[in-house]
Amino acid sequence: MKVEILDQARDDLVEGYYFYEKQAPRLGAYFLDSLFSDIDSLMLYGGVHRVVFGFHRVLSKRFPFAIYYLMAGNVVRVYAVLDCRRNPTWTRKKLAKA
User: Fold this and answer.
1) Residue range 17-65, pLDDT digits in tens
2) How many CB atoms lie within 10 A of CB 17?
3) 17: CATH
4) Please, are residues 88 and 18 in contact by the beta-carbon 8 Å criterion?
């Protein structure tokens, strides 16, 4: 299976990187390593996760973030990587734009 990270999801990852890098040196890099590991797991487990707001959602193992994706044949398309601490209404609106 192939995984594609769409531009808006890349922007979410960059935003998360800068947030955590401000908290502590190298924490942003650890954030990216962790999230990319979770995204890579979709090559094996894509499509088995619960559907939330019309997207499959996988929760990150180390950070309070969720990865929202859709399946298209043998391709997993990651549409958003969002902070779970945000208001669910904000999350729903963000995903409606994806």
Assistant:
1) 999 999 999 999 999 999 999 999 999 999 999 999 999 999 999 999 9
2) 17
3) 3.30.2310.20
4) no
Q: Are the CB atoms for 3 and 42 separated by under 8 Å? A: yes
Question: How remote is the C-alpha of 87 from its chain's centroid?
Answer: 16
- pTM for the full predicted model: 0.96
Per-residue CA distances from 64 to 20, 44, 45, 70 (Å): 12, 22, 20, 20
Instruction: Please list, in sequence order, all residues whose beta carbon lies within 8 angstroms of the beta carbon of residue 77, skipping any fewer than 6 positions away.
Output: 4, 6, 69, 70, 71
Given the structure tokens 């797991």, which residue do they identify? 41
- Measuring CA to CA, which residue among 52, 42, 37 is closest to residue 76? 42
The amino acid present at 32, given as its one-letter code, is L
Domain of 24 in residue numbering reads as: 2-96
Structural domain count of the chain? 1
């990319």: which residue's tokens? Answer: 36
